[in-house]
Design goal:
This protein is α/β, with parallel strands linked by helices. The chain is 43% helix and 6% strand. It binds 2-acetamido-2-deoxy-beta-D-glucopyranose (4 copies).
Length: 381
């Protein structure tokens, strides 16, 4: 049932595209997709105000990413008290799983994987390059390798160039919601579809259900992190972006999911600049491709021709419409619940909940203004 509604949404987006593309006889202006333009479509596309080169104020504490130091039981204990014993737990949730840290010791790069924020896409770009040129491989952090190079956690962190990605918290939450239930083989009975409204009040609900009722049983539950899967795909990202104080950034460069191409291109320039004077090969641009976004990339293929926007970025914005649909369906309560859950992330990204202008109650009002995809419309004029 859930599948069919997603499919219909997908079809309606594509058909809107095809209609508008075929309606335009050759030359621009091409109308942008007929997706509803309103408070919610703007909401899910707000991107981090902090991006590109940023000030790294200190290293990411080793116990947040080194598996030997990470406290495996803290989150489970927290969950046990809150969910099973139903105690009045006032401390914020600890991290459910260690941060995914990848390292390249030749280029002296560190990439912190922020789940559901284009991390697969970024890592794949390096992986592709890595196939032909071994020095370009980004490998999961290894303490042995670090020590073999005479480094400590902190000296490595301070001297390497640290990269991570950010994503709009509302889109990220909705994407995590889709992702978790989508991969459950069982979606009936106690594993039945959780309304989005319910999810927003507690994004850890799916992880709790998945573990309690084994909704993600066997096949899809692999590896030592399987129990944490549905938690870490929705949990706040700030733990893996900040120094020990929690207030300063532990990264040098932030890629915005909503502007992946633009930011990644700038990053490649920086990496290439840093490698000058060494024998390391130059990183090629234009290799980046969205993963799991094929259909949206296809749909925008012609849309952005000749316009100063990469089609992959346009695709990200178009695909975000399926997230807008969720908030439109449940209104400002969901918007506010998610903002509360991701408050620390939002503070780091310096973004605020866009003010409701009225009509954004349940079911959502539509203002019907022109939709602009990051300035495409203006450029096309
Ligand atoms: C891990 O966290 C728990 C709290 O759940 C705490 O009691 C325990 O002492 C911690 N272990 C270590 C090694 O820090
Ligand atoms: C939970 O604890 C906090 C602070 O300890 C208190 O203010 C609040 O009223 C408690 N809530 C419930 C439902 O007991
Ligand atoms: C996209 O553009 C190509 C040529 O650039 C054209 O052959 C194709 O028909 C176009 N597709 C759509 C859906 O308009
Ligand atoms: C879109 O904007 C243009 C110019 O800004 C205006 O002429 C047009 O009427 C608008 N369309 C809608 C549907 O508001």
């Amino acid at each position: 049932m859930w599948h069919s509604s997603l499919w219909q949404l997908l079809l309606s987006i594509i058909s809107a595209f095809l209609t508008t593309i075929s309606a335009s006889k050759g030359l621009p202006p091409i109308d942008l997709p007929q997706s509803p333009s309103d408070y919610y479509s703007d909401l899910v596309t707000v991107s981090s105000k902090v991006y590109g080169e940023v000030k790294k104020s200190g290293p990411l504490p080793a116990e947040r990413y080194d598996e030997k130091l990470f406290n495996q039981s803290a989150f489970r204990d927290w969950l046990l008290l809150k969910v099973v014993y139903r105690e009045n737990v006032t401390v914020p949730a600890p991290m459910s799983y260690r941060c995914g840290v990848f390292v390249n010791h030749d280029y002296k790069l560190i990439f912190i994987r922020n789940r559901k924020a284009a991390s697969t896409t970024v890592l794949d770009t390096f992986k592709t390059a890595c196939k032909s040129q071994k020095v370009m491989c980004m490998k999961p952090f290894s303490e042995e390798e670090m020590e073999a190079r005479g480094l400590t956690h902190d000296t490595m962190w301070n001297s390497y160039y640290v990269i991570s990605s950010t994503r709009n918290p509302w889109a990220r939450a909705a994407s995590g919601y889709d992702y978790a239930q989508d991969r459950w083989p069982v979606k009936t009975g106690v594993c039945g579809v959780v309304p989005f409204r319910q999810f927003c009040t507690n994004p850890y609900l799916l992880g709790t259900m998945g573990n309690m009722f084994r909704c993600g049983a066997e096949g899809s539950f692999r590896g030592d992190d399987s129990w944490a899967y549905d938690f870490y795909h929705v949990e706040p990202a700030h733990h893996c972006m900040t120094d020990a104080s929690g207030a300063g950034l532990a990264v040098d460069f932030l890629i915005r999911y909503e502007h992946l191409h633009e930011d990644f291109t700038a990053l490649v320039d920086i990496i290439n600049e840093r490698r000058k004077g060494t024998s390391l090969p130059e990183l090629k641009k234009g290799r980046i491709r969205w993963r799991k976004q094929g259909v949206y990339v296809q749909a925008t293929r012609n849309l952005t021709g000749g316009v100063s926007m990469w089609r992959e970025d346009a695709a990200a914005l178009v695909s975000s419409d399926r997230h807008a649909v969720r908030y439109r369906g449940c209104g400002v309560e969901c918007v506010n619940d998610i903002a509360k859950f991701f408050a620390a992330d939002m503070q780091l990204m310096k973004i605020e909940t866009p003010p409701a202008v009225g009509g954004e109650r349940r079911g959502g009002g539509r203002k019907g203004h022109n939709r602009t995809f990051g300035g495409i419309e203006r450029d096309m004029g």
